[in-house]
Design a protein that fits this description.
single chain, 0% strand, elongated, mainly alpha
Length: 1593
Amino acid sequence: MAALLPAEWIKNWEKGGKSEFVQLCRALSENKNHDVGFRDIQQALYELAYHVVRGNLKHDQASNVLGDVIEFREDMPSILADVFCILDIETSCLEEKNKRDHFTQLVLACLYLVSDTVLKERLDPETLESLGLIKQSQQFNQKSVKIKTKLFYKQQKFNLLREENEGYAKLIAELGQDLSGNITSDLILENIKSLIGCFNLDPNRVLDIILEVYECRPEYDDFFVPLIESYMYMCEPQTLCHILGFKFKFYQDPSGETPSSLYRVAAVLLQHNLIDLEDLYVHLLPGDNAIIEEHKREIVEAKQIVRKLTMVVLSSEKTEEKEKEKEKEEEKTEKPPDNQKLGLLEALLKIGDWQHAQSIMDQMPPFYSTSHRAIAVALCQLVHVTVEPLYRRVGVPKGAKGSPISSLPNKRAPKQAESFEELKKEVFNMLCYLGPHLSHDPILFAKVVRLGKAFMKEFQSDGSKQEDKEKMETLFSCLLSITDQVLLPSLSLMDCNACMSEELWGMFKTFPYQYRYRLYGQWKNETYNSHPLLVKVKAQTIDRAKYIMKRLTKENVKPSGRQIGKLSHSNPTILFDYILSQIQKYDNLITPVVDSLKYLTSLNYDVLAYCIIEALANPEKERMKHDDTTISSWLQSLASFCGAVFRKYPIELAGLLQYVANQLKAGKSFDLLILKEVVQKMAGIEITEEMTMEQLEAMTGGEQLKAEGGYFGQIRNTKKSSQRLKDALLDHDLALPLCLLMAQQRNGVVFQEGGEKHLKLVGKLYDQCHDTLVQFGGFLASNLSTEDYIKRVPSIDVLCNEFHTPHDAAFFLSRPMYAHHISSKYDELKKAEKGNKQQHKVHKYITSCELVMAPVHEAVISLHLPKVWDDISPQFYATFWSLTMYDLAVPHSSYDREVNKLKVQMKAIDDNQEMPPNKKKKEKERCTALQDKLLEEEKKQLEHVQRVLQRLKLEKDNWLLAKSTKNETITKFLQLCIFPRCIFSAIDAVYCAHFVELVHQQKTPNFSTLLCYDRVFSDIIYTVASCTENEASRYGRFLCCMLETVTRWHSDRVIYEKECGNYPGFLTILRATGFDGGNKADQLDYENFRHVVHKWHYKLTKASVHCLETGEYTHIRNILIVLTKILPWYPKVLNLGQALERRVHKICQEEKEKRPDLYALAMGYSGQLKSRKPFMIPENEFHHKDPPARNAVPATVQNGPGGAGMPTSLTINTVRLEEGTAEETDKLKEKSQGVVKVINKTVNATPKVTTSNGNSASNSKIIKEKDDKEKSGKEKDKEKKDKTPAATPEMKALGKDGKEKPKEERANKDEKAREIKEKTPKSDKEKEKVKKEEKASKEEKSKTVVTIIESKSSAEKEREKEPSRERDLAKEMKSKENAKGGEKVPVAGSLKSPVPRSETSESEREQKRRKVDTHSSPSHSSTVKDNLNELKDSSAKHYINHTTPTLSKSKEREVEKKDLDKSRERSREREKKDEKDRKERKRDHSNSDREVPQDSTKRRKEENGTTGSSKHSKSESPSDSPRLNEKEKEKNKSKSSGKEKGDSIKAEKMEKSSSGSKKESRHDKEKAEKKEKRDSTGGKEEKKHHKSSDKHR
């Protein structure tokens, strides 16, 4: 430490040192920092004295300066004495005597500054003696020892109780007197002091007696507490604590029980801070370690109980277990030693000393103290008192009196809460310490909940300041914590208190469901593990739940329901978790469980909703069965349970709906099952593919008819539940998002769920998504008000372009909006003008339609490319998509059916004698009201339909613009309207069929009904293959309705003439410009229409057989579904039906073990098909197989040059019919397979691509073939004109539609011969030739395809550019056609050109080559194309003819005529040869038949090659019934000659595969085997071929 006194000061002491020192001391004394100043002054004085001791300064100088300094501080003498004391010790140790002398002199000089007593305290006796302050140091020492002994070691003798009972008796009398007067504690204290003095009483004993008396007179706190407080001033502080400790110790032996009065006295003394808790706590038993051990033991015991409850105990073990348990219980009954800490805690709580109580609770494990009932009750009482004023202000329900609770008498108790803010200080804290043990006081539980309710009311009302809001937020989070940690656990421990549950719901329903579900989650998954009591309760609940669920049946729903209700009031999460786990395993429990839940409280229903969502979201559960093809049964059961439970009980839906939406956002569509079930059960809207036609019909009526006749279950009383569902959707803004998510997910399913999952499952998910969308959309349409709907659903272009909703779904969602909108506009207009005339009304309706639909017409333009609108108008597109079946037709029969049902019901009610009269009356009134409603609805719909039809009549002329071709128009119509909508829903399927018929009936310009139907029926393979299961069902319905119409027209000439005879849709000549006058010659006549229908049936058979043969799961399943749906109208023809039957039978055998679902479908269909057999008719009854024109044609035609007369061929046909059908249909299959497989890879399964490509392909082919065709065609035409003038109209018809028909009419043998040759090349040589040429032409093909297509497109462009030229050409062509009759026929069926056999090489090969071309070319990837190609050919050719330069036609005609003559001569020669061959073949026929069975299928497949390649040729088209029969004959023959044929086919097939077609490898082996067999019997078969062709002729 640096010296404060520099050496210079000492040297110059007199000059300046002295004054410097005085100044320093003054400065140090004035220092504000007391401690620092004190130390520095000590140091300064010490240094000064030390200089004196060393001799640097004289003692008188020092004493003078000290005299000056002494008054600077009051304690300066004491400081100086301390300095002398230190120097005394230091100098007494030194050997230098002079220093000691200097010290003594200094002290002597300063005696006047420091008093003697201070020095005597601090200096040694020896020093004092030398200073002369005492006489002898020795005597001084002895005296001090004596004093110390007397003070500290000598005991004062007090009188104890038995020695001085008078004194103590007086003391007790003093304390026990009546204190109600003006006696104060001070007065009594004086008396006590006197008694102690007089009778020499022991003060500690007196204190003890005071405490004893206080214990006995607890009501006099105000007297005893001040008394003890004053008395304690005379004692040491610890005395009171020790005396209390001794008292507690006295009761600590095992049998002792501490009296509550002692606890209370201790508590009061603690509260008044007369003792410290730490000091007293150590005197109490048991120790903290013992408490912790006990707590751990309780937890272990609880876990053991749980284990026992969950263990399966066999009966023999049970008795032993019970005995052991009894023993244990007996041991437990021995009372545990008193827990003094808890006793003190209880007393503290009772008097309201929360601080000390809290610190005792903190020493123990959580909830240990409150797990003792007495403490929990005491703490509850304290809370009651604390919340009283606030509860009285905001919590008391209206009309309730309540029993006010008085506040605690002492002022040190916690302050009572007047506002919510004050609850935070103490109450929330107290409740947290209570935890689950609030259950001991249900009344307090209710109070807390009511305060929570009142707080939420305030919290949710707006208008508070920002600061208040923040405070409220904090309070809200506190309330949530209290709910989680106290209220819910307490509810679990309460004994089934339904009122508490309802009370709690009053508060819970003010929380958003997110908070509620969070609380339930904590309650279910965490709370039960936090406390041994709760662990036990959980185990007992599960045990009880098992007991109830084992016994639950439909019969005992009520008693079981009551038990479930009781159990659920306190532990809903645990109970429902178990019940749901059972439902997931056993779905037959669903109904009884749903019925048994009627005794639940609102809170329990809400918890149930949460438990369901948690079960659905369980990440450990697989949503698919192990085979990956079906949705797991647990999910299906849960969904079904959801629907039933949400419908029956008032459960909030928001959470569940949000869960489904979240799953959809995450791209998961499994959970849509839930939404589907909920909507079905709550709104009564069913989505099922199994609807009967009656139900479907009822679904096209009004809402009442739908409810009565449209659904399977008579779903009644859905008004409330559907309202609840609607409110949940609107309140949480989920209506539109769910729709959009479903629409997007539907298309996403294939990609997101596709890939690794089984195709069957992907289809199921797609269907589920789609069905739910349809169902949900239906619900919104029927339940949302117009305003709600319009407010929520955006316009169509926004839906499609911004939200990427598929068009069909977007229109589905918007359709109700248009309907609502139009009807409201219509009502407005009606009100505005009161005109009742029908036409006025119609005019207003049309006006309102225009107003509403105009913006829609604008909006749809953006949905497709501009090119689309060249053919169909936006108005037509919007009209098609915005109307429904309700708008097109009134289901009168359905209305009648339902009305009749009601009449029957009313009659039954009248006849029922047992029914009480008032019930009879009610039922009858109900039925009458329903009947009136239905009749009113029917009338309303009838008026509406008439208005709509009027509107369509006005619109129809602008519908189809057909700027390109009618063919294109039909393509676009099918592609953008019919196909997407016919698979949308069952009613839409019916709608599409009706709409097509309506467009036909309206005589819509540019609409070719024939083309449309032909496209629909001709090749359904691709469409069927690309459907899901439900889409196939709907597609089947669509085909069924289309077939129904066709069958009606086919059934009767009168109906046909009336409904189709003079309609533009049945024109057989297609013109680029619209329909120009009804030229009867251009109409398709009835008989030819029947041929066409037969062709369609044949095509359907061909497609069906192909699908059944593929072995593909989806193909087989879908075609069976479609066939089942169209069964009423197909098959009608016996041989087609038999072919189908055989094939289906084969499926039944093949799939029995492999794919049971296909087996079941096939068996079902097979049975139904057999039952239809009696209604099938032979082919010749279905349509006339001989040429329809025969009667009108002169004899020459019938038995023309080389004629062999038709009748013979007919008979042959019928004879062979039976043999032929199987073979024929199988061939069909294979043909189509051949083609399909080639095409399949490039095929896009949607109808879109199909048609347009179809055009290009057929057109390209046509352009190439045009020259040949025109030549041969024209010659034919001329010749025919000479011979058969009557045949022309039909020929035109067929040129367009039937293609093959003209040839039938032209019963020329040369053509037949030619045709037969085409179908089944007769000799190996020729086949060989053809093969070689085809190979050679292969390379050309690939090159030409490109040019063909280019030439087509350029031709089209030219056509578009030169409309005027087109029109001229059209006129020219028409005149030509009238002259020639059959010009178009050859074009359509290019392979049939009547070139004689010897000359076929060039033209036939050339054409075949082209045909193969079109098949293998990728541009040919068309679905509908194949079926429709014949039509397209003719129509397309017609258009192209306009653009081709019309070179000198007369010359061409001459050339063609010559060729024709030659060909005819040659064919006659050939026929004669064939006649001979045929006879020879007849002999061999039986041999070949034997070979057929083994090889027939193989051969069939190989025939695909040729037949496939010539698929578009007339020779192939099944619609040619006469020729068809010929074909059948040939096929019968070809059974024998199949092997030979096979060679050529095989070669052709090989060529195909080399040009990029993909064939199934299994066919190769079969081909090889077949080839060998064929080679062996080749010669025979050649002869047979000739024979067969002769017979034909």
